[in-house]
Amino acid sequence: MTLEMTEEFLGLGSIVRLGDDTGTGLHVVLARGAFRPDNARNEVVPRYLVGPHPYGEAPDRETFPVLATDIQGVVHHGYTDAADAGFLADLLDQMENGRRPITRARHFAEGLTTIPEASAVEESDAAARSRADPFHELRALVHPTGREGVT
Question: What is the pLDDT of residue 145?
Fold first, then answer.
């Protein structure tokens, strides 16, 4: 029995609308797979790992799996070509005939962008002085000789 997808198999990067409470409801497809709800039947439902648009995979945003049946609409279709058809055929073959031995890939775990903590950003001397005495620049204009302590 050959397995068949019940829904369109979306390309990576597709933007989909889900009925959730994330604001816009828009999510980007980050990874793809499939789910076979009944082993007695040949029907397979596309399954996607999604992240909120415009963030995608971000350390402070949740990514989660959804079935194609959870998608309310496709806002943008991601790129697909012949390689996607081969990927899908291989996926369905493995679902039907079992997993082949694989070599585990190394996953990137660091952040893509280095963003310093707010407390790590040093304040300039002038900014610190302005915060301590908001009138220090005016005092310098009135007393140009630079006498400190004159009020």
Answer: 62
